[in-house]
Amino acid sequence: MSLLPTDPAAGRITPESGSDDVCRPEHCFHAFDALYCALTKAEPIEPAFPNGNPLFVTWNTRSSRPGRAPRLRGCIGSFEALSLWDGVPEYALVSAFKDSRFRKIDKSELESLECQVSLLTDFEDATSYLDWTVGVHGIYITFSHPSLLQSNSASEAPSPLSSSPYLPRLTSKQTFTATYLPDVIPEQGWDKIEAVDSAINKAGWSGRITEDLRRSVKLRRYQSKTCTVGWDEYLQWRESQTTA
Questions:
Q1: Which of 86, 95, 93 is nearest to 48 (CA)?
Q2: Which among 71, 112, 123, 164 is least buried, having the fewest CB atoms inside 10 angstroms?
Q3: What is the pLDDT along the chain (244 residues), one digit of tens a residue?
Q4: Rounded CA gap, 185 and 189, in Å?
């Protein structure tokens, strides 16, 4: 999930007032449609979505063996309140073709794919890196380069207090950012500290994670509305749309 704004708190992260933030199968169908048409040169079916939301599009590969969880194949999104008309197709393709962790999705994989669209809602600034709930919130963290931290405590015990107000003002190149969607953290079995530590590593920091570093993290919590559909469901929908 690499395409993230450098400052999600800069007035762009909240959906429009009164926006329809319920995620529906149609969101996933149009994401699938964008990918299918990009790979086959078919004509896309125009979506009709209201307003806008921050969103993520996730592609998973379903296992051929019953009981096995799907494997992540690509996941990228935006914290800007995008028009869903444009945002769903755009990030369907970005997550399919530009997630640097994976090779591009190709046509031969379509039948094994499932698509999940997450509409992000209820953004709040947390009072500390521990001020959120596993299984309810996603987390977006920002923190400054640890070499600039001023140690305020010798203790390594977790604390709800934050030292972030005491950090110097920095440029964007000296700031690290990362996010985890709400469903990722319980899927991994992490507690709050494990999730924040993993996000710190994901942001690009490979050094030692101290309690001072955790306290310097500025955490923004959010929730999401999700929907997931598979290839067969998409095909049925596209046939119904093209024969109507």
A1: 86
A2: 71
A3: 434 433 333 333 333 333 455 899 999 999 999 999 999 999 999 888 767 889 999 999 999 888 888 999 999 999 998 888 889 999 999 999 999 999 999 999 999 999 999 999 999 999 999 999 999 999 999 999 887 776 544 445 555 544 343 333 444 448 999 999 999 999 999 999 999 999 999 999 999 999 999 999 999 999 999 999 999 999 999 999 988 6
A4: 6
The residue assigned the tokens 């950012």 is 177
55 contact partners, CB below 8 Å, separation of at least 6:
77, 78, 82, 84, 87, 88, 91, 117, 118, 119, 120
CA distance 205 to 178: 11
- Joined tokens for residue 15: 């959906």
pTM exceeds 0.85: no
CA 230, 183, 25 angle in degrees (round to 5)?
30
Nearest to 126 by CA among 11, 219, 20: 219
Residue type, 14: T
Q: Report the distance separating Cα 187 and Cα 230, nearest Å.
A: 20
Q: Is 227 helix (H, G, I), strand (E, B) or coil?
A: strand
C-beta atoms surrounding 114 within 10 Å: 20
Would you call 48 exposed, middle or buried from its count of C-beta atoms within 10 A (0-12, 13-18, 19+)?
exposed
